[in-house]
Amino acid sequence: MPTAEPFAALGKGNGFNRCLRIGTVSGDEIINPPTFEQVVGSYWNFHSASFSEAKFEPGNEPMDLICNGSAAMGGDDDRSTGPPSESFSVSNSSPGIFYVDGGDEIYYEHGISFKYITYEGIDGGFKLTSVDYTSTVASTTVDPVPYSCIVLRTSTYGGGSYSIGKLATQKTVDVSSVDIGDLPFVKTVVQDFSQTTFDDPVGSGNAVCATASFLSETSEIPSLTLWDY
Fold this sequence. Notes:
By secondary structure, this protein is mainly beta. It has one helix at about 35-45, and strands spanning about 20-25, 45-50, 55, 75-80, 85-90, 95-100, 105-110, 110-120, 125-135, 145-155, 160-180, 185-200, 225.
């Protein structure tokens, strides 16, 4: 670990030099939360983070945060066009506080995150996989979608309709707890598939439902380095 010059700071009386952002969540969204001490340590002592070729090292010492609370904030990303296309990103932002269901129970969130996205357009559709490493709160905006295959139809001027093909879709969501650099994270993997197959000839109904397949998540592992004293 890199060694920082020791310092003392009065702060805001909350372990930080700023008031933290506040949010409210439901209890089932809280996963692998860091302790207060871990969040204070990750805020003051963030040195660098990397995910594949995405690398962020702000170049400040911890004492620089006394006068500039955003000195260690920022990020980096690395993208390739593929196919499949891939992107890696790292980010360090301000920590926060969450109350559960508006009650008095408090959880802390560090501001460090990592993200991976891979995308490939296929004949009649796409495949997309995203991997997010965040803190404390699992996303509730993404739900799994079981495999389905529906008949696509188009209307005629006479008020009737006929089939033109079939649309197959599926989405998987996996949420787990992981540690990076001894700091707890929530890992969310979303794999998405959509593909349309067409009748030949149109209206015959002979289109075959596509079999769902997914792009794999990356084998790259995020890394995090904190200052030591």
